[in-house]
Amino acid sequence: MMHSNYKFRALLVLTGLFYIGNNCYCQDKNIDKGLYKAATIPDSLKEGANSVLRYGMEDVVIKGPGREVDKIHAIVTILNEKANDEAEIVLPYNKKFSSVSSFEMNVYDADGKAIKKYHKSDLYEHAAEDDETLVTDDKVLVIRHVVASYPSTIEIICEIDNNSFIDLGNWHIQKEEQSIQNSAYHLTINSNSGFRYLNKNTVIKPQVTKADANDSYLWNVTNLKAVKLEAGALSWKVLPRVYFAANDFEYYGIPGSISTWQDYGKWIQKLNADVNTLSPQRVEEIKQMTAKLSTDKEKAKYLYEYMEHNMRYVSIQLGIGGLKPFPATFVDQKKYGDCKALANYMVALLKAVNIPAYYAVVKSGPNEEPADASFPADPFDHIIVCVPFKGDTTWLECTNSNQPFGKLGAFTENRNALLITEDGGKLVNTPRSSMQDNQFNGQVHLVLDAEGGAKAEIKISGTGTYRDDYIGMESLKFDQQKELFIRLLKLKQPIVFNFKPSADKDGVKDVNINLEFDKFYDVKSGDKQFYHPAVFDVCAFTVPIEEKRKTDFYFDTPMQKSCVTTIDLPAGFEVESLPANQTLKFDYGNYEAGYVYDATKNQVIATAKFNITSNFIPAAKYTELQQYLDAVAKAQNKKLIIKRKA
Asked: What pLDDT was estimated at residue 302?
């Protein structure tokens, strides 16, 4: 991954900070002692809250492009264990461009008595890396207090100097299930900087004052009650934030402009200009590799699959490497790179055979917030490739070595990406997948025995998100595979579980599972046995009732699921009653179930089809979704009744 936040803003768990008043923006040590006592929290702010931000102040002084001082003072009361992360502080820094000038963390009991104090010397340092990062220049300073009782109060006072960033970050006013007693953000910046801000989920306005050549902005909120996100809601569409940006920036000593998307794209283009070409000898080899392919689309597919099979993903964040790719020649020789290096390499491969392609920066993650076209900034953290074939624009995910050609998946679909073109940056939309792109197709042979046990042979073919799931499961240990399948498919506990990965071809992943159950019936009464007529349901979830739904509901992707289950009855048994065939519909989905008894073969054939046609369900349609899923659950719970023959 590339840097997700180029400005080394502290990853404090504290979400907002309070204005002291009287134009005093430094940390005030003469704070009302009552703010350290849990008993003084208004009852209205305790409701639904795991923590309460009692007091805070963030004072940011922008001294010039890429240079700032950030002073933070905050007091948070932790009400229960769900907010324990409030007592863990993570401060990113880079020895060349950022530093923690001072740090203090104080811990108080419920009565406001100081019980622990931490200093800068207590912070411990390690590389800012994840499991996929091989090496990085970025560091973090970390401190974690183990909360022993509730409520407890954490006070943070620190100062951070930053000398390398692109945009000015944002103020996350409130996070989920945290109430705000007093919170403010103060920013000072040169009047000619082109400073701008953007509100999200709030109408708050700053107080603006001018002094000498600087403008001063102050945002202030009080008494915000805790917010709990509704099921399936997206936090970025609900929780209040303010985004900041200025026209000019400096990143790792390299100046640039982000006044427009085009300007920012020009900066990235210039940054990458010397790394996106392969050697003449290698270009000739690539041309020979694709010489027998007749169309550009065929050549692009061949080279994409060549890249997938021969290069591996390794995250490397060194110096400006957090944004600048390693040269295409490096990747070609070393056979590895991170997202930006692999994307740049893919563009170079296509360039070698005269196929235009664009490096594209994007925000990653299912249903992530798209960039705002009206507010040039840098929310991006990932690189993909766009190939503008005539009438058939194709997008390539170069990091995932299992991704089919031309498919992005939930990680980067249905948002906007910044294409780095010859003329600079151009913000365009990435494609949205359909339910046909995310298919789950099952075939089950279920053999019942006279005592109520069963054996099942299952074959599942998955595309899109389901294919990703099953490829990911192959690397897990046996117990993890078993637990996941039982949970995801809501299987009865088997006495035998055998998972067999199978073919993965043309974007379709097959898996085979063999199961045995010592008791598969739901109820046994005399000579009758009552069965759920499927080993698993095509719809294994419901959503809660919410009578006054306020926010839209999101699935990761649309989906289309089907299963045909062939049930062999035990010798000497016959069907007494089949579940009724059923069809259910709502505006964004439908469900069908059918049952047929073949007396000659003594078999029941059960078919089920379920789909959700859109990943987005408007709030006004949520109740219909809830009723639809409940109706599907009831339909799937109908019983197959068999009995011994007279």
From this structure: 97
Rounded CA-CA distance 91/320 in Å is 20
Find out whether 644 and 573 touch, Cβ atoms under 8 Å. Answer: yes
Identify the sign of the CA torsion 8, 12, 16, 20. Answer: negative
Query: Quick one: three-class SS letters along 370-399?
Result: CCCCCCCCCCCCEEEEEEEECCEEEEECCC
Beta-strand relationship, 496-505 and 508-517: antiparallel
Rounded CA-CA distance 369/356 in Å is: 28
Assign 3-class secondary structure to 271-290.
HHCCCCCCCHHHHHHHHHHC
Residue with tokens 């210039």: 270
Peptide bond into 151 cis (omega under 30): yes
The span from the CA of 493 to the CA of 454, in Å, is: 12
User: In which element (H, E) is residue 32 found?
Assistant: none
- Do the Cβ atoms of 558 and 438 come closer than 8 Å? yes
In DSSP terms, which residues pair with 124 in a beta bridge? 142
Contact 213, 192 (CB under 8 A): yes
Virtual torsion, Cα 247, 251, 255, 258, nearest 10 deg: -30
Q: Please state, in angstroms and as integers, the Cα–Cα distance from residue 258 to each residue in 32, 195, 266, following that order.
A: 42, 11, 9
Give pTM, 2 decimals. 0.90
Look at residue 639 in the predicted model and tell me its pLDDT: 96
Q: What percent of the chain has pLDDT over 90?
A: 85
List helix spans (H) across 387-518. Answer: 465-473, 478-489
pLDDT the model gives residue 292:
95
Please tell me the distance from the alpha carbon of residue 521 to that of residue 450, in angstroms, as a whole number. Answer: 11
pLDDT score for 397: 96
- Cα gap 205→218, rounded to integer Å: 8
Q: What are phi and psi of 425, to 5 degrees?
A: -80, 140
Residue 436, classed as helix, strand or coil, is: helix
Angstrom distance (rounded) from CA 360 to CA 429: 11
Residue 321's pLDDT is what? 63
Positions of the chain with pLDDT under 70: 1-29, 126-138, 316-319, 321
Residue 259 and residue 167: Cα distance in Å, rounded? Answer: 10
The predicted pLDDT at position 642 comes to: 97
Looking at residue 18, its pLDDT comes to 33
Instruction: Print burial letters for 93-131: b (CB count within 10 Å at least 16), e (below 16).
Output: bbeebbbbeebbbbbbbeebeeeeebeeeebeeeebeee
φ and ψ of 92, to 5 deg: -70, 145
Helices 296-310, 339-352: inter-axial angle, 10-degree rounding = 140
